[in-house]
Amino acid sequence: MQTYDIALLLASSIIIIMICLPTVVWTLFLSTDISSPIYEKKMLSITIVGGVILFVFNSFGFFIISPVSYIVFVLFTYGVCNLFSFAKCFTADFQMKVSSWNIAKLFIIVGVILYPFSLLATSFVEEEHFIFYFIISMIYFTLLVRVVLNFIHYKFSESSNREKRHEVVANVQILKLDYPMSVPSLYNADLSLHFMMSEKRDQGIILSDGTNDKRFASNFIIIFISWFIFRLLRSFNATGDKWKDLIHLNQLLRESDGNEILICILIGLVIVLLLYRHLSPILVFLILTGIFGRHFPLIDKGVKSGLIESHFVYFGLFIFIFYNCIKVFYYNKIYIKKHEYNDPLVGTKLVLYMLQVFEIFFGLLFLLLQKPENVLVTSLSLLHMHLIIPLLIQNWESLGLTRMQVYIIALWIGQASFFIHGNSNSLSTVQINAGFVGVSSYRPVLHGILIACHTFGSKFLVLLHTLVVILTRKRDILRLYMCIRCWWMLQLLTLTVYVINVTLQRHHLFIWSVFAPKLLYEECNFLCLMILTVIVYLFIKITNCFSK
């Protein structure tokens, strides 16, 4: 295969996408009143014509294809259609119109379809982090829009239902005097209205006593803060080849006199202590003290500075695991058997506790392996996932998402966290020195494990925390299987498409500098997901044995 065949392959794939994607979009996401066949044909023709125009203009501009321009055009057309639809909401049928405004689903489906095919080009592989930065940021924006529209919908529904209730009560009072036999039917109408409000209240749409206002406000604030933290994290490390010469925050911290790094480390350790204080807070505090001593040792020993502190952290992590394992298999088992012997969720609670212990253990180990300027990055990344993932899992229905889409967002957040920590699809960004933290002799297996934990630990932590939140909210092991199966589906799709791509482009000029390292990273992601699956499976089997 010659190099010019790549452009033909990409052009043919984009043409197929230009035909299939609008059909999927206009079929799945348009509201019922404007999804007639005539309307869909108009939108389909407008989108295809617009895509052809963009293709022609980009060809004249010496760009062979520009799929990003076409995708933006599709999203813009869809957004304009929903904007006009939303404008009509203030006149009639507010609820049906607002339900159609959910562009977050569009971004998720477009991301799932186009992400594997974006890896066919070297530029997309080198700058893959921008894809996840863009998708995650736009999902946050659309979720904020969704929360605002839900709040407006709630206010309109509250006022209209209040008027209906007052009208029914007034009619009942009048007919009590004139037509006593009609009163039961009116009472039934009032009762049906009450049941309708109760059903919406159970779905999380309408709450009472001002609770809904607080819920909308808290959701908006959490999403906005998560978006702000995510945008701040992007500025710490520069990855990829584009804008590599620009100054980033970690570079400024390295060039400072040390006081700024000290403040950042203290802030980061305080954040981690607040997040992990629910299990063995004294041990967690001592381990964090050792992590601080590793970066600022009390005794300067030259090359071996921080070695004793690192050994102290490893010993503290061992004590943490040993103590909590005893607590799980003896104390918790006896307590649960004594007080909740007939509870069918005994095994689920033990699995949840073991996952929480392993999450804290791995999070502290990952924090130990970081460079001084990356401690705050790791802490903010942990805070970010502790804010947004519980919100998505708890409020997925009110946000207009499905469980599968929430799991996909969690996987993308993990992949974005991988790039946030300074990693890329190049082997040059692998931190070899992380494998020698607290290790004074040459042990290749241990070095490899520590380097792997440092490189892929951020994504692993996000996936692990997602499983913990799922079990915390819904004590159902089947939800874990559903989530892991969704991740496997996406990972296998990406890996399959990319292996075919590498096979077809094995004679490409950048096969060893771009495509081969990315294939290695995808295989490592596959391995990380396999390790996570095995860990969950072992925890479930162990708890089933001890809970009998």
UniProtKB/TrEMBL annotation:
Keywords: Membrane, Transferase, Transmembrane, Transmembrane helix. GO terms for molecular function: CP2 mannose-ethanolamine phosphotransferase activity. The keyword Transferase applies. GO terms for biological process: GPI anchor biosynthetic process. The keyword Secreted does not apply. The chain crosses the membrane at residues 6-31, 43-64, 103-124, 130-152, 216-233, 258-275, 282-299, 311-330, 350-369, 375-393, 405-424, 444-471, 478-500, 520-540. It comes from the Eukaryota. Residues 365-522 form the GPI ethanolamine phosphate transferase 2 C-terminal domain. GO terms for cellular component: endoplasmic reticulum membrane. This is GPI ethanolamine phosphate transferase 2. It comes from Armadillidium nasatum.
